[in-house]
Amino acid sequence: MKPIVAIIGRTNTGKSTLFNRLAGRRISIVEDSPGVTRDRVYADITWNGKELTLIDTAGLEPKMEGSILSEMKKQVDIAISVADSIVFVCDVRVGVTADDEAIASMLKKSRKPIILCVNKVDNLGDKPMEFYEFFNLGIGEPMAVSSVHGSGTGDLLDAVLDSVKFDDLTDENDEDEAIRIAIVGKPNAGKSSLVNKILNENRMIVSEVAGTTRDSVDNYFERDGQKYIFVDTAGIRRKSKIKGNIERYSIIRAVSAISRADVCVLMIDAEEGVSEQDSKIAGIAHEHGKASVIAVNKWDLIEKDDKTMNKFLRDIEDELGFMPYAPKLFISAKTGQRVNKLYELIHMAYQNHCMRIATGVLNDVLTEAMAVNQPPVDKGRQLKIFYGTQVSVKPPTFVLFVNDSELMHYSYKRYIENRLRESFGLAGTPVRFLIRNRGER
Description:
CATH architecture of the largest domain: 3-Layer(aba) Sandwich
Order of helices and strands: EHEEHEHEEHEHEEEHEHEHEHHEEEEHE
CATH superfamily of the largest domain: P-loop containing nucleotide triphosphate hydrolases
Distance between the termini: 26 Å
Shape: globular
Largest sheet: 7 strands, mixed
Strand content: 15-25%
Oligomer: single chain
CATH class of the largest domain: Alpha Beta
Number of strands: 18
Radius of gyration: 24 Å
Strand order of the largest sheet: 8-9-10-7-11-12-13
Helix content: 25-40%
Number of domains: 3
Structural class: alpha/beta
């Protein structure tokens, strides 16, 4: 799994500028599916062959006099709990402030690796005297960076890689051949109720172990010979008057849980309907290439007629149109209604997530697809797909070798995907395509 790096600090220190600089230069996952939200606080990047997930956090600033420590601690604690490494951003032009000292004090107690980043140093070769004040924070040697110009960012990422113990980030997905499931969703969607219902009805629990690099709890149990690990993300249920921040940090919690999962169960509150927040969280699972199941919870509380379910399914399609492959299930975590059917969908999504297709069979399907619907023509040139091959699983990823990758229109790629789904199923999992010109490695 990818280590998570949280960028934290006071407001106006340049955190988001730094985040955008790091993500924009080395972005590793590019998703061109329409409908996926781009208003996000995370980015998957690659640096020196290593993959990381960056998280941009809200600026830590008191909302009213006297509330600074409680407000800062609440937000810093959430950032710390999901991070494998922390980049603490300060502003050289302002110098060391009381807020910086308070944040530094809390970070040191976390025992997480901390890289002290002093931003807005325009000339790295001639650092201002204010730069050396940051040694007084007791975090170690500060790193000079200009997020606007990009200077020093490479050294910063090198330091981040050095701070993360990649050998300790084992692939937990292979642990005892258990399927790891993340229950995600917006606050009060019923995530903990679902986990509690599952555990109460299936008492073959092996153990309850706190995550080695997170504060989430892994619930191990077995059902019908299949081992499962349910990741409880109950920590995002807290209410807050600061709506923007609770939404931001619930997404951070979701990133943490999703990054560790094989299958994501997206919980939607039937009483509230499908929201923008649901779309954001579903978009994280989609962009991380995770198998997904959509569970509409509290269905027992809805007054229904013969059109209610179809209307709700249309609402899901409108808001989550980028993941039509995810099966939908209407449940009640409180009463247990249809909860047992969830296992079948999880198992199906996981099996399809791991599916391998023989090259010969794949190319037979591609040939038939092109015969039924001819590839597009642009300015007299027609796309030709010479052959395809599967290069990885989780999710199934295919390389298509063509005469000109620029001729591969999104709509035709979606058509090819639909034909693969018709031929091989693949329900519950996204599918990835890499388009290469013939002869290109």
